[in-house]
Amino acid sequence: MGSDTIDFNQLMPLKTLFLNPPSFENFDGGAGSRWPATREIESYWYPVWLAYPTGMLEGARLLDAPPHHVSAEETIQIAQEYEFLVLFTSTPGFPGDIRLVTKIKEQNPGIKIAFVGPHVTVLPEQSLKACPAIDFVCRKEFDYAVVNYAKGMPLEEIPGISYRGADGKYVHTPDAPQIQNLDVLPHVTEVYKRDLDVTRYNVPFLLHPYVSLYTTRGCPAQCTFCLWPQTLSGHPWRKRSSDDVAAEMAKAKEFWPEVKEFFFDDDTFNIQKARTIELCAKLKPLGLTWSCTSRVTTDYETLKAMKEAGCRLLIVGYESGDQQILKNIKKGATVERARQFTKDCHKLGLVIHGDFILGLPGETRETIRTTINFAKELDVETIQVSVAHAYPGTELYDYAVTNGFMAAESKHMVDEGGHQLAHIEYPGLPADEIMESVHRFYDEYYFRPKAVFRILRKAAFDSGERKRLYKEAKSFLKLRSQRNKWVQQKRESGDSNTATAPAKA
Question: Which of 43, 98, 354, 432 has its CB 3.0 to 4.6 Å from that of 499, i.e. a possible disulfide?
Answer without folding.
Answer: 432
